[in-house]
Here is the input.
Amino acid sequence: MKIALFSDIHGKILLPFKLVDLYQKETGNKIDFILQCGDMGAYPDMENLDKATIKHAQYDRDELGFHDDFTQIHPDIQAFLDELNISMICVRGNHEDHDFLDALEKENFQNPMFPIDVYKRVFVCKSGLKQELKTENESLTFVGIGRIGDRKGRSEKRFIQDYERKEIKKLLKTKDSFDILITHDKDDSSQRGYGMAEIREVLDHVIFYYHFYGHTGEPFKQETDFNGITESIKIKELEFNESGILEKGCMIILTKEDGKLVIEIVDQKLTNKMTKFNWKNS
Here is the structure.
């Protein structure tokens, strides 16, 4: 089983799918699923954009990619996604239309994840619940925790909600171990004054072999977590730099074979083939 991981796509919903297609063609290796660490930019209604998205969208229409490309069917996009035949499973970030996502989550109250787009290719997983991905020969277990933490007690929907905290409390009592944890925010062990306390709690009480996160703006980083077990990986945001290229560590491949997990940081020689100026037509 091979999983492609990304973070912070900010409306460029189609870009991870195109990068996976490129990777498959360049390497001959099949990808089974995409996991994404939040800030999808899931805004179907232009009136509900947050201030940051409005600001960036004035200069970059890619910020509105969910609205433009994934709320109504475009035959060329549908044909591409159908041929690729891969689902992207995300956690919530802080830049999403949470009212829209809340409504879908309530409609799908019996399921641990739910589709959010017209093609039924983009899914959001509920925070704190056990998830499982299966292929013919392997299965991979993971937990997602979305949104961001807050040390000031604020309750806006970009911050973790009480019902999610309840699910995380249940998770802390489990004796299960999991392959990976995907989160938008990082844990709150940093001295920089941000992070989510619940993520730290989960990492201290539940066994995960890998933890992937985004959000912080830091470069790609791989290190052993304070718990001494989990390999913690900051995925670089999927953003084009001033030169129009993607930066190191924006695309990670996780392989599970015979129960063993191995990661690959996709080389920039591959990702550089898809630039700010050509990716939509690639």
